[in-house]
Amino acid sequence: MKTICGIALVVVTVGGCSAVDNVFCDNGNCGWTDHESAELSALTDLPAEPPVDTSNRYAGSPLAQQLGRKFFSDPRFSGYYTGNDEIGRPMPFGRVAKGQAMNISCASCHDLKNGGADTAEIPGNVSIGASWTTLNTPTVINVVFQPLLMWGARIDSLWAQPIGAIEASMGSNRARAAWTVASFYRVDYDAIFTEYPVPLQGTIAQLIPTLSSEPGKVGQCLMNPDCPSNCRSVKDDATGATGCFPRFVLDGKPGKKAGCQPGDAAEPFGDAFDCMAMDDQVAVKRILVNFAKAVGAFESRLISRDSAFDQFMVDVRAGRANESTIISSDAKKGAQLFVGKAGCSDCHNTPLLSDSKFYNVGVPDLGAAVATELDCPKGGTCDCVTPNNCLPWGVRDGLVKLQKHPYLRTSSWSDDPNDLSRKMYMDMSPDAVGKGSYRTPSLRDVALTAPYMHDGALPTLESVVAHYNRGGDANVYGDRSARIKPLNLSDKEQSQLVAFLKTLTGAPLPSELADPPELPR
Prior knowledge:
With 521 residues, the protein is mainly alpha-helical.
């Protein structure tokens, strides 16, 4: 017994719609089983509104969204190219020469007119910002629906991600970011974050002439001949070293050593940030957090809707699957394969086309900057022996970082520290996740986000489908999921599946989101 075209039949068929089926079909969905229709229906209809994020009370503010849009596109929040990857290995090239200003923004690596991903990536290179990252740049479109962010699931909110990006992929630092806000966005910022007005006085242009360029004292106040009254004299009790810093330093971030070591070349910017008064350090962090909450408010509006697939499903629900011309006949066959023989919807389900779970899908770790266990020796920046920051472990490493993250929804920086919506992940044992597992990405707009997989190893949708068809690659790192098995799709079926994936591209984002905004000068 099977149900097809709304009629219960006892027939034996190889596939499609048999002659007996055709006799009884009374609508245009002949050949589409109730199961296929239901499974495909479950993949459409993204919620009309993004989920409420109580940890960011500014998320729904139009003013915060507008400010976040400017922050997202402003290259003045970037720093300098390091010439290395994120674990310190020298890389062959970059967007600019080593040591030069990057002049990039969030939008440089998340092109909102091309799926919100890094269109400069090529397979094997992953993303290149201030350094080479070890992972493919994930899209920012539709991430508001994901419970955890990043391939390794190490971040639990939209606003926590830009905080780390400032000092990582953007190559800047929290003090410089605070001064950028003070110099160009003070009025707009203060109008939104009324409880935390910018405490930095003046602008970058006014501060620079007051600073020394003397080796060992770069960024400190000019002596006249002693430390000026508007600057802060500090001393390292352990070594006796002294320094003279502005109340709010121009460049600075926490160092590795506790306390203030003025002029220490081993610490960032001569340990300038750690030599600030503690209350002022907190004030700078607050500006950085609010910068990130504005960016998160903007990103919550980046939603891909109204794909050809979504439109086609309107016809399916109306009983017009076969006569619908919204997608091709090959794409229709691909849709049936997606929820049937190919089994894609086992993991790529829900209207997001992601179950938001974690799998090792048998992808080889390829590329100059992609870290393997051999690149992560004991005591290294990437350490898989201790382990400490074992990047190749994927989510197993990411959950460790998530559970220790300083900017959680439950942290003091949250607008709702009682937000327990991610508790299941905080309670999850990292050891319960297979090594080399990564978060299931959404497939919405997937045709725009090449290269694919966590390390960008696969250049095209065709190569992705071929990868799954052969059951993943042999001898890959980690604990491959039992779900990854050969699919036995024919060449024709593989091309049909690709045709379906290309129907998942949504309508372009409106210009008020995708186009670069006018920035203050």
